[in-house]
Amino acid sequence: MPRIHIAIMRRSWGLTKKILSGEKTVETRWYMNKYKPWDQVSKGDIIYFKDSGGPVTVKAKVSGVKQYTNLDEKGREKIFNKYSQQDLGVSEVMSEIKAYIKNKRYCIIIHLKSPKKVTPFNINKDGYGAMASWLIVDDIRED
After folding, report:
1. What is the pTM of this model?
2. Residues near 98 by beta carbon (within 8 Å), at least 6 away in sequence
């Protein structure tokens, strides 16, 4: 059975609208340690996206997943260069984003398809932790 995920995006990077427009076709998550959705996201799952501080506005289906471990600077650069256009929807990458991935040891590449706008709705993050940026939920009721 497909899982339902909620990905919380950094508002200042403006990526949720790029998912909807098709400019962003992969979601990457970079970590120092293995956090959600590590080993918990699969082809066929549904991801709902929201900008931090805002409601959920977009959903997409997962068409594939790749995970990378024990990354060094060379490995991070190779993955980043391969996927940055698909992930960020831009050819020139902000220095803030490059700084964000520095020293990260793990990366998940999630390929997205069939993005759709959803009627905006809020989520309750109680029990997930204030800093949680990825939630796995049992059910989403869309109007």
Report:
1. 0.91
2. 80
